[in-house]
């Protein structure tokens, strides 16, 4: 009997090992080469660090039969919302008086918090490890998501006119680009953004976010697509001429 029980226990352990090593990754599409948000959430402007704009959440089959809730904001909203759990974060663009809003993601009519200070940004917040990050002109900001008025740190990226692309979060780093006459891509330590881990001079004003997938970071400037080492931006892997200008959104797939 003891032998039968032991064999049964071993059999159950083997089944569990097979399940967790094979079934879970297949069903949930685990991909360690990109930083992804959880189900029904949207942590970054592009949905993930590779900017695939993918979500596994489902929309209503017929929106005409769906309850629509709205919230009145002071001016235009030029940025995408960030959804973390049951909270939604967004910036209402009011020129130099743009406020950060936290609203109930299940009922956007319910405003939970409005920042007392302004954030002059065009593109969205990024959520990473219980903090919010954004670019305001040529600075990277780390913000307390429990208190939107509290800036935990702000760090210089490059010279002026660098507000176009949202930051990108991946593997403990925040990637951000800025600059006009001295433009750079920077990799910051997400826990301490005063620490710049690596940099790359991009010789022209950046218009889009840095796309990160695994060991590669991509950006496009002045018609050139750049492929950099994501853990050491100073190392250029390759470049390719694309067009006269490169200001449009792009993404990185598994092979392309």
What brief labels describe this structure?
single chain; 256 residues; mainly beta; four-stranded antiparallel sheet; 16 strands; disordered N terminus
Task: Provide an overview of this structure.
The protein is mainly beta. The chain has one helix and 16 strands. The strands form four sheets. Strands 1-2-3-4 form a four-stranded antiparallel sheet, with no helix packed on it. β10 (173-178) and β11 form a beta hairpin.
What's a concise summary of this model?
This protein is mainly beta and 256 residues long. It has one helix at residues 2-28, and strands at 82-84, 87-92, 99-104, 107-114, 126-128, 131-136, 139-144, 151-156, 168-170, 173-178, 184-189, 192-201, 211-213, 216-221, 224-229, 232-241.
List the helices and strands and how they pair.
Layout (H helix, E strand, L loop, with lengths): L1 H27 L53 E3 L2 E6 L6 E6 L2 E8 L11 E3 L2 E6 L2 E6 L6 E6 L11 E3 L2 E6 L5 E6 L2 E10 L9 E3 L2 E6 L2 E6 L2 E10 L15
Antiparallel strand pairs: 1-2, 2-3, 3-4, 5-6, 6-7, 7-8, 9-10, 10-11, 11-12, 13-14, 14-15, 15-16
